[in-house]
Inverse folding.
């Protein structure tokens, strides 16, 4: 498990925003409500919750510094 600042990846960020799977899911309205991850995949949801609470995005740090 990682602790501290996450290293951004522009390639992965761009790929996630322009993926075909995302386009199809959004166009068909097949999005699950927030919190549904615990029902669909509890192991991944638990990992993501711990990961997001133990790490910090570099963009969040920059936003706090520039405010």
């Amino acid at each position: 498990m990682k602790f501290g600042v996450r290293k951004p990846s522009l390639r992965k960020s761009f790929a996630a925003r322009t993926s075909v799977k995302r386009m199809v899911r959004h166009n068909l309205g097949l999005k699950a409500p927030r919190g549904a991850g615990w029902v669909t995949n509890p192991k991944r949801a638990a990992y993501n919750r711990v990961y997001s609470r133990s790490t910090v995005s570099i963009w969040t740090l920059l936003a706090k510094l520039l405010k």
Q: What stands out?
A: The chain is about 65% helix and 5% strand.
